[in-house]
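Q: Got a minute? One more chain.
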Amino acid sequence: MNPRTTLHALALSVLLPLFAAVTVWADPAEEAYHRGTHLLDAGKYAEAIAEFDEALRLNPRYPAALLNRGFCYGGKGELERAIQDYDAALRIAPNFAQAYQNRGAMYAERKQFDQAIRDCDRAIQLNPREPEVRLTRAGALCALGRHEEAISSCDDALGLRPGWAWALCDRGKSHAQLGHTAEALRDYDAAIVSDPRFAVAYVNRAELRRAGGDPDRARQDLDRALDLNSRCAPAWCLRGVLRAAEGQHERALEDYAQALRVDPRCALAHNNRGVTLLALGRPDEALAAYDQALLLDPFLGQAHVNRGVYLMERREYEKALVDFEAAAGLHLRDGAAHLGVGTCQRQLGRLDRAFGAFDQALRLNPRLEGAFYNRCIADLLADRGKQAATDARAYVELKGWKDALSPYVGIFACLALRRAGSEPEARKLLDEAARHWDAAAWPGPVLRFLRGEAKEEEVLALVPSPEVMTEARTYLGLGLAAAGKREDALKHLRWVVTQGDPRYVEHDLAAAELRRLEGAKGGAAPRK
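A: Always. Here it is, folded:
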């Protein structure tokens, strides 16, 4: 969080001549104000508020007292009361730049970024030489995904305060979000040179190194950050992420617990703890951790996405959709929230909405392979054969044929192309998959069947487990339907719908194809 400042100089103090013969009567409101500022500086917010209350009782039109009382409320996490005080100060002094600046900071903490930017712009108009308001503005722009503008705002702050470590770090964050890794690293390095004891810069650089596949140097940065400030909750959180990635889940939980000891309101620690608990097979505790994270910070997009994934896996799609849509409204840049929206909408049968969400996910992240995979399935359900093949090809190009899901998307694309009457293209795709996938490894037998090299009985005999029978019979049914063998296809598709595992995406594909085939004869597909 960017530092906020108070304006103690606004106490309207008066320099009086020091003549022994002159008696000076102190202003009681101003005395209470000064007592409040001293308590504020000591971090004693409750006591400071009491003194500012007294100052305002004696002088209700005291904007500086309202400003600093608002700052105290903000420090206590009472953001609405802080904003109310800044509103009141601005009614008394409409050109009070610091009140706009502080109110902008409060709006930013409430994730009301548009309002934050408006207040910062007004504060800059009134006081162009103040660097901190430009940094608050940069943070709000960054949160809205407007990273180029955020970088420009940081540049302005650095023009007013050269070498400012906070501004360098914030500029580095926006560079990192834009994929400008070298520029981000340069900013974090410069922040550390400017202030070698600035723990936040080490944490930010550690995250950049972790994301770049350098966990050892990331760990070194985190160790340094914690040496400098053992109460740096983000450092404990990130160290837990590194440990969890190495399979040290219990030690990761210890790090998250330490983060919560130093900052009981650290929502990110609860979120990360939920991810690790889920990996340990403790889903109820994971859900409770996500709930707690969102209770502390309803705007934590990661927690909404993670809880949405948990609910989606439990097939609670409407509830999951609420979380994904909340995350999608928070301007996350990785596309995961929109992918979740699309997947839930697909499961709920709302294909038009699903396509819109998948498209948005890929606009945000053109290399989001999960969006291509899930949109390919939706293409099949919507009978968009050519588009299904395009999405399948995009997935394989990103992941390669050795990826566990690549042969499945190859099967999807083959079936879609055959339904669209593009047999040569379907054959070409199957031949390519066969060159890269072990024919004996599942779903190799399905690929062989679709190439005409294996019979139905052979495929069924090679199913590796009873659960996978849902896959096998779906692909047999879809393949036979594409070949015009309607009755043979119906046998397999009906089995899937009535006896298959509904958790499999193949169950949805089989049900859709069965409805299509039965509909051609005026009948209704059985429903499980």
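A: The chain has 29 helices and no strands.
Q: Perfect, thanks.
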